[in-house]
Amino acid sequence: MNAPIISSLDRNGNPQKVFTFDRKTCYIAAMTEMKQIRALAIRAAKKAGQILKKGQQGELKISYKGDLNLVTNVDQLSEEAIVALINKHFPEHQILAEEGHDRTEPSPFRWIIDPLDGTTNYAHHFPFFCVSIGVEVKGKVQLGVVFDPIRNELFFAERDKGAFLNERPIRTSSIAHLRKSLLVTGFAYDVQTDPINNFNHFINFSMKAQGVRRTGSAALDLCYVASGRLDGFWELKLHPWDTAAGSLILTEAGGKLSDFSGKPFSIYDSEMLASNGKIHREMIDVLQKIR
Ligand code: IPD
Ligand code: CA
Ligand code: CA
């Protein structure tokens, strides 16, 4: 077995020193970095959550990205706080954040941030919103944190290590039939102008399931399916910051993800179907009915 060799180059591009590490040393270094990332992701989510909670007590400044798509000053404050922490501790990591604090220089690490998922709820003082932070390593989400500051609920998952709610393991529900299922969905901000608006699926599921909810926070919807409070979720036109953390929390809790036809899900694609696994096939059948 060859030990990996790490060399550093001087400013003329000539090898300066050659370090040889065995695999164990490299493994320990990677584990240590993940541990630091985990601690920071949780710290950042809690800090941003406190900003959201406090923001509910003051006057909100609201502006519009589109007809229905509003954004508050607190979305910005929350994102700034998260990004400041990442900049301090991991200034070389990539960032993809909904309100635009992106960093795109090459790095194997990418933080994917929704500083306030559920902004419409937030602006109306409807207490269902959260902070969502996912971390990709080499293009694969490895860690996810979703924090609901109103209920003080922190959902967390790390790949292959399970999913947790306030440090207690969570699992998806055991409901095996759509008829007995409580589902959830959402609608994109172009719902009033684009004919691909999800109303068709909403009607079909309403006729087949025990109930369908629309909560206004996709990240929490995924965590609620992950923790068995809901059985299935589908939505169109979500963004990576809506789904990065929640998708890992869901699969680590035993849930299943795909697009509407059962093909593998990507946080960069438009269709998301998430379930406890047991009703997944039935949900695909409903989604396929009207394509
Ligand atoms: C929205 C929420 C909502 C979903 C929308 C999202 P935002 O995110 O997750 O539940 O239906 O599609 O855009 O704008 O509140 O961060
Ligand atoms: Ca969102
Ligand atoms: Ca948002």
How do the strands and helices of this protein lay out in sequence?
Layout: E1 5-9, E2 15-20, H1 23-55, E3 62-64, E4 70-72, H2 73-89, E5 94-97, E6 109-117, H3 119-123, E7 130-137, E8 140-148, E9 153-158, E10 163-165, E11 168-169, E12 182-185, H4 199-208, E13 211-214, H5 218-226, E14 232-236, H6 240-252, E15 256-258, E16 271-275, H7 280-288
Parallel strand pairs: 5-6, 12-13, 12-14
Antiparallel strand pairs: 1-2, 3-4, 6-7, 7-8, 8-9, 9-10, 10-11, 14-16, 15-16
This protein binds D-MYO-inositol-1-phosphate (IPD) and calcium ion (CA) (2 copies).
The site of one calcium ion (CA) has 6 residues, from strand 6.
Question: Could you describe the 3D structure shown?
Answer:
The chain has a 7-stranded mixed β-sheet, with helices on both faces. It has a 5-stranded mixed β-sheet with strand order 13-12-14-16-15, with helices on both faces. The protein folds into 2 domains: 136 residues, 2-Layer Sandwich (Fructose-1,6-Bisphosphatase, Chain A, domain 1), CATH 3.30.540; 111 residues, D-Maltodextrin-Binding Protein, domain 2. By secondary structure, the protein is of the alpha+beta class. It is built from 7 helices and 16 strands. α1 runs antiparallel to α2 and α5 packs parallel to α6. The protein is globular and about 55 Å long.
